[in-house]
Amino acid sequence: MNLEKFLNKAVSSWMSAEGPDSDIILSSRIRLARNFRNYKFPTLFSNEEAREIINQLKEIHSDLFDSYGVMEFLEVEDLKTLQKRVLVEKHLISPRLAENASHGAVILSENEDISIMVNEEDHIRIQCLFPGLQINEALKRANEIDDLLEEKIDYAFDENLGYLTSCPTNVGTGLRASVMVHLPALILTRQMNRIIPAINQLGLVVRGMYGEGSEALGNIFQISNQITLGKSEEDIVGDLTSVVQQIIAQERSAREALVKTSNIQLEDRVFRSYGILANSRVIETKEAAECLSDVRLGIDTGYIKHLSRNILNELMILTQPGFLQQYAGGPLRPAERDIKRAAFIRERLKLEEKDS
């Protein structure tokens, strides 16, 4: 396994599997923030300390995680700008880690469901991803990895506060649990403006598909916990799961209402978007994401029968700027990316139709 494996395949192996409620929930993610006890946090540490942390994890990672298969250790300073962008688009590293060129690293599992970021905002950030609504399963996996690391590393931990982190909002469990949701019907029925404030009042936050500061392209949102102190991991995950299950029910209800009350209009929207994707010669990221969202809704509601959900998952990532340039073999200007994006979508849809 090498870097090219992570760069050339848009859909990770775990994404190809069907998970619970996968018509609405794209993925479940657990992230644990941890730090070494005797080192300054990444916001203050020296390059020498950063190097020591990388070397320690590099030395132990292959034996420590052998039960999870081959785990690749990649140092950020060895990656090109475009390679880092592709890893960000695949949610394998964060934008912040991509910027830490001189002292960052990541440990990746072969099927990309495990990502351990080194020297991001904290010394260690364990990330586990599962398809559909499987937050408890992701938490179990993350805790297994955390236990393995804790056998080798003396964590920064306080008996009263819990795990100590760079950002005070992560102190305590150090846990961020999140789900990636596709909510086109709640957007079309204009209910999201009411739902988001209600979610925030419950101690959760709604963001775009690439986290804080990102736009909710293609009606895809991340919902995650804000509180990490004063609650157990089980309570945090339980509260998030309860809210997400309510959102699933509301999205399904909105879809049923659209099919019942606006059937021809919804069908027209779905097939217009499909026509744009199948025939456009120039298409921007935002328009492509909106059309892909409509087509996926068409698949889930039964209007489109010859495409799978996986093709939409794949195209959501393949049409991002980094991936387009990776396939083109080098940098592209925005106008060139829009042409390449349209051509790639047309070709991929034709290939899917031949196989159906």
TrEMBL record:
Residue stretches making up the Phosphagen kinase C-terminal domain: 24-254
Short sequence motif RDXXRA motif of the pArg binding pocket involved in allosteric regulation: positions: 337-342
InterPro entries assigned: Arg_Kinase, ATP-guanido_PTrfase, ATP-guanido_PTrfase_AS, ATP-guanido_PTrfase_cat, Gln_synth/guanido_kin_cat_dom
MF terms in GO: ATP binding; creatine kinase activity; protein arginine kinase activity
Pfam families: ATP-gua_Ptrans (PF00217)
Binding site for ATP: 27-31, 91, 125, 176-180, 207-212
EC main group: transferase
Catalytic activity: L-arginyl-[protein] + ATP = N(omega)-phospho-L-arginyl-[protein] + ADP + H(+)
Gene3D superfamilies: Glutamine synthetase/guanido kinase, catalytic domain
UniProt EC number: 2.7.14.1
Domain of life: Bacteria
Activation and inhibition: Appears to be allosterically activated by the binding of pArg-containing polypeptides to the pArg-binding pocket localized in the C-terminal domain of McsB.
Keyword Transferase assigned: yes
Cellular component aspect of the GO annotation: extracellular space
Keywords, in A-Z order: Allosteric enzyme, ATP-binding, Kinase, Nucleotide-binding, Transferase
GO biological process: phosphocreatine biosynthetic process
Stated role: Catalyzes the specific phosphorylation of arginine residues in a large number of proteins. Is part of the bacterial stress response system. Protein arginine phosphorylation has a physiologically important role and is involved in the regulation of many critical cellular processes, such as protein homeostasis, motility, competence, and stringent and stress responses, by regulating gene expression and protein activity.
Family, per entry: Belongs to the ATP:guanido phosphotransferase family.
Protein name, as recorded: Protein-arginine kinase
